[in-house]
Each structure stands twice: as structure tokens, then as C-alpha cells.
Amino acid sequence: MRAGRIAAAAALLAATVGWASAGEAFRRLSASEIRMHLVGKEVTDEVHWAYRFEPGGGLRIVSLGRARAGRWRLDGDGLCLDAPPCVQVWMAGNRVEFRRGEGTLPEEGVLQAPASRR
């Protein structure tokens, strides 16, 4: 009985470690990578907000069901949206984090083709 529990615990640990190591690590994007990944796409938390990055700096924002227009630009390797400060963009697969700096939580979303919104 004890050997069975040890084997089950070992299998669970191996599965957990295998799953964790299979995940892609976040990495910070450069200005050219930000442009390549975001233009023509949207980043959304899939519930509350979405940012659609248009060519030429146009930004379509939907927040809590309300749409508005804005602007985006690059400053060095930072992404500047309508409200300061500029953010660092980190990606892992299709997951995106907008990081504002030390001591603040990142804004987390997914990168996807623009969704049809009213």
C-alpha cells in the first residue's frame, strides 16, 4: 500500500514538473518585435478590455463594453498608450503582459486576431 502511494506521488510530481517545464517563458520584446506582433492584432483579457493596434498608431479600445479611439507609439523599446507611463511588452506564446515597472502588477492578456465588436 505504501509503495503504491509513493508511486502515485512520484507520477504526480513528474507530471507537474513536465507540465511546468513545457511552458514557454516570458521574454521582453524589442520595438521591432512589438510592431511585428501587435500591429493588426488585438490584446485582450477576453472579458473586460481589448486593445486593437492599427497601422500608423491608431488604437481602438474597448473597455467594459464602451469603445473609444486612441493612439499608440513606440519610445525606445517601450509601448506608449494613451495614458502614461509607457509599458514594457513581454510575451510567451500568445500570452502578453504589459509591465509598468517595479511594484506594479502587469496587465495580462492574449494576442489574437481582432474580434468583431459592436
- H-E string: HEHEEEEEEEEE
The strand line-up of the biggest sheet is 1-8-9-10-2-3-4-5
Secondary structure: number of strands: 10
Q: How confident is the prediction overall: mean pLDDT?
A: 84
CATH fold group: Lipocalin
- Count structural domains: 1
Keywords: Signal
Signal peptide: 1-22
How would you sum up this structure in a few lines?
Residues 1-22 form the signal peptide. The chain has 118 residues and is of the alpha+beta class. 25% of the residues lie in helices and 37% in strands.
Structure description:
There is one protein chain. The protein is of the alpha+beta class. Helices cover 25% and strands 37% of the residues. It has a single domain (25-112), classed as Beta Barrel (Lipocalin). It contains two helices and ten strands, in the order αβαβββββββββ. Strand 3 (49-53) and strand 4 form a beta hairpin. The chain is globular and about 30 Å long. The protein starts with a helix and ends in a 6-residue tail after the last strand. Residues 1-22 form the signal peptide. Keywords: Signal.
